[in-house]
Amino acid sequence: MSVDSGRSHLVACACGQVVFEAAGAPILTTVCDCTSCREAGRRIEALPGAAPVLDADGGTSFVLHRKDRVRCTRGGEQLKEYRLKPDSPTRRVVATCCNSAMFLEFNKGHWLSLYRNRIPGAPPVEMRVMTRDRPDGAPLDGNVPAHATHSVAFMWRLFAAWFAMGLRTPRGIDGTKIEA
């Protein structure tokens, strides 16, 4: 099912046992080149039978959605969180049935960063962020705007979504409130 601004679309693990539904248009589609996303991608890809996480150039592609518009419809009991450090402000959640990375969630965030490769017909990437963390000499393809950090456009889109949500932060996808 392809992504359409007015319809829901499915986000599924590689074997299909874990499925989310994301309603409406995403906030943004991006590739993150930060050190943490690259390291987490390597760790998740090292799990037995893991589905790919990193793009061919080492970045991690995400489709950001409002947290209140994403729900798990099947297989929630198979979700497991991973953190780079115990006190990390982000958690990456994996479907343990096939070790597919499903989403990244920031503490106190109002959005979820869904792994783009889990979404059939995902929208095209709009920008790259955190390119300052790319390994020396790693070329950029030049097809989308690239920003050394999180750009003003990136932050504005997150703020606009939060404003549309009444400046509230919904519970996490598994129903838990993540505290800092």
UniProtKB/TrEMBL annotation:
Pfam families: GFA. It comes from the Bacteria. Residues 12-40 form the CENP-V/GFA domain. GO terms for molecular function: carbon-sulfur lyase activity; metal ion binding. InterPro entries: CENP-V/GFA (IPR006913), Mss4-like_sf (IPR011057). Keywords: Metal-binding, Zinc. Belongs to the Gfa family. This is CENP-V/GFA domain-containing protein. The lineage of its organism: Bacteria, Pseudomonadati, Myxococcota, Myxococcia, Myxococcales.
